[in-house]
Design brief:
The protein is mainly α. The chain has a domain of 174 residues. It contains 10 helices and no strands. Helix 2 packs antiparallel against helix 4 and helix 7 packs parallel to helix 10.
């Protein structure tokens, strides 16, 4: 996206939002929530078309949907509806992000607005990278470990399995946003690169705790699989922080 195009987008959002009193802000929130709700509803209805394919995709790491065992009459339709809703949320994400940006833009400086528009594609790319890492690397190793633990035959229920898979890929996707968060805080002058380097050992402890919480298995191999990319991403975040850092007046450089 060129600088001229960024300026046009920012000016457009400024024109449609502007400065508003409290009641108008509340009315704006209501209207934007309606737009988001209708968009999610339409997208969810549309996602019914390919919901079965999405179910098959999510069930692939466990060996296919035929491996799952349902014991509730309504469980299958419940899973189908939840997967359709997830597909609708994913398709609605551009509209959701736009409505959020249009609401918060008036409170930002012009430089912050430009940084926000530039960061959005990076945020999406990092999130999708985290999802791909979870699906192609984590799940194929975690699921066999869990199913074969103690040598007991396990036939997962669809509800518990899809809940487990979606939570895992979502939180790993979120954790991959680490370098963008670090770069943003550095850009705002909240954290300096020196602070991130000096406190790296504490960051490693936090990453280890985070990996232990995210990892679905207790073995160190899968925990290491989560820790390794997060450590690399922390290093990338330090590099980006050095590039993006803008000290704030009145703040010392060790923060």
């Amino acid at each position: 996206m060129t600088d001229d195009r960024l300026d046009e987008q920012i000016e457009h959002l400024e024109e449609i939002t502007g400065q508003m009193p409290l009641l108008e802000h509340l009315d704006e929130i209501r209207k934007r929530l309606i737009v988001v709700s209708v968009t999610v509803l339409v997208a969810t209805l549309f996602s019914f078309i390919f919901a079965r394919q999405l179910v098959d995709l999510l069930a692939y790491p466990v060996g296919g949907i035929e491996v799952l065992q349902s014991i509730d009459v309504t469980e299958n339709i419940s899973v189908f509806m939840k997967v359709s809703l997830m597909g609708g949320m994913i398709m609605s994400m551009p509209v959701i992000l736009y409505q959020l940006i249009a609401f918060v833009v008036p409170g930002l400086t012009r430089e912050e607005k430009r940084s926000l528009f530039i960061a959005l594609p990076a945020a999406l790319l990092l999130f999708l990278s985290g999802i791909a890492f979870a699906y192609f690397i984590m799940l194929p190793r975690a699921i066999p470990f869990l199913l074969d633990f103690l040598g007991i035959h396990t036939a997962p229920r669809p509800k518990s399995y899809f809940s487990f898979v979606t939570r895992l890929v979502f939180w790993i996707g979120v954790s991959f946003e680490l370098p963008l968060v670090m770069a943003t805080l550095a850009r705002l002058g909240v954290l300096s690169p020196q602070f991130l380097i000096t406190n790296a050992r504490y960051a490693m402890i936090i990453i280890a705790i985070l990996a232990a919480l995210i990892t679905p298995t207790p073995d160190p191999l899968n925990m290491g699989l989560v820790m390794a990319p997060l450590i690399v991403l922390y290093g990338v975040g330090i590099v980006l922080a050095k590039i993006m850092y803008r000290p704030r007046p009145g703040y010392s450089n060790d923060k």
